[in-house]
User: Fold this.
Amino acid sequence: MDQVQKPAVRRAVCPGSYDPITLGHLDVITRAAGLFDEVLVAVGINPDKRGRFTGAERVQLITESCRELPNVAAIEFTGLLVDLCVDREIGTIVKGVRTAADSTYEFPMAQMNRRLKGIDTILVPSAPEWSFVSSSLVREIAGHGGDVTPFVPQPVAERLA
Ligand code: PNS
Assistant:
């Protein structure tokens, strides 16, 4: 078998919409930060969709929420995720999966990203305590004046209060 080339610095990207970051996201990012030398949290911006937070606000909230993770940085991106990976010499995509529906959504994207540029994806099963938490539910609860503090990092809770 051919020798597998291992990069000197092992980099991963945790892509997502992060509108806003939740404690479920933070758990996956923290686990990725333990497995890789550098982790880039990449906020995908869909120009046709207006979110609750702007891209810059989402990046700011991620940066504040990941303050204790020195090997984690956050950016916005547009275009293909695999192009970002190639530009920044990132070899692996890390994504959390909460449910079978998430796996069904993630599998073809993972296979396509590998086919496009050879970028592999690691799917991390979410911790059970976060398997029902999503950014959309957080937005809905906060929009109706409910308490989201158990589900989001403190900077997000403060911003939504
Ligand atoms: O939070 P989400 O909805 O799971 O995030 C989806 C995101 C932003 C990670 C995904 O849509 C993405 O990677 N968009 C960039 C465009 C792209 O590369 N699409 C996948 C082609 S296989």
